[in-house]
Specification:
Blueprint: H1 3-19, H2 23-34, H3 38-58, H4 66-89, H5 95-116, H6 124-138, H7 142-152, H8 156-181, H9 194-209, H10 212-237
Helix pairs in contact: 1-2, 1-3, 1-9, 2-3, 2-5, 2-10, 3-8, 3-9, 4-6, 4-8, 5-7, 5-10, 6-7, 7-8
Length: 238
């Protein structure tokens, strides 16, 4: 892994440590642009994502497992379906273009939702099913996951806990499924596993100082700008 790739991972680990999402949301299109295929990207990023999410989960005192249970029940079957679909179409679809559209769309939805609270989810189970297929196909379910979590709670600590628990479940199932059926993980990436641990503990002081509204505005504004950037790049590459 090059120094540039380590720097990219470090920056996105910082984002996820603070906001709950970021490493997969922003790292997936970045590593696709560098030249990795979809399953290679997952094998690189998922162990780091799992570790950060685990640290965020154990840092919360009052844990509620109901949201996690619903994710396993309603999201995971569709997540696996998405991964199976990717295997057959990853060389036929411009996934950078598709991912950029998803990133832009959900970032805009999140920004509007935070400002005007227009998007009140009435059927959480159906939304979780949609989240599963989107995350399986693109690895970018983080924006939708943040909408779900912010609809259920207003406290940033609980919101981040629910996002982290969702990401943790997704990543464990993804990594397990991929390494059984598709591509074995390259353990050379794991020698840098100290990076997310160090960054997580450094970032927590920043997390505590960020107010709830600013917390998601910053994330979604950056995700929107980055989505537009990779959208332009995807058009230039084709």
């Amino acid at each position: 892994m090059s120094l540039l790739e380590l720097l990219i991972i470090s920056i996105f680990c910082f984002f996820q440590s603070v906001f709950g999402v970021g490493l997969l949301l922003l790292g997936t299109p970045t590593f696709l642009l560098i030249g990795y295929n979809f399953f290679e990207v997952l094998n690189i990023l998922l162990p780091y994502s799992i570790l950060i999410s685990f640290l965020q989960i154990i840092s919360v005192k009052n844990k509620n497992f109901e949201f996690s249970r619903k994710i396993i029940q309603f999201s995971i079957p569709l997540l696996i379906l998405g991964l199976i679909t990717i295997e057959y179409f990853q060389n036929k679809i411009n996934f950078i273009f598709v991912i950029s559209i998803v990133l832009i769309l959900f970032s805009i939805i999140n920004i509007i939702n935070l400002k005007e609270q227009k998007f009140k989810l009435k059927n959480i189970n159906l939304a979780l099913m949609f989240l599963g297929i989107i995350h399986g196909l693109t690895n970018l379910g983080g924006t939708l996951l943040s909408i779900l979590a912010s609809n259920l709670n207003k406290d940033k600590n609980i919101i981040r806990y629910q996002i982290a628990s969702g990401y943790f479940i997704f990543a464990v199932f993804q990594l397990f499924f991929i390494n059984i059926f598709y591509e074995k993980i390259n353990f050379i990436y794991l020698k840098f596993i100290w990076i997310p641990i160090l960054i997580f503990f450094i970032s927590q002081k920043i997390f505590k100082k960020i107010k709830n509204i600013l917390f998601y505005k910053l994330l979604n504004l950056f995700a929107l700008i980055y989505g537009i950037y990779i959208f332009i790049n995807s058009l230039m590459l084709h």
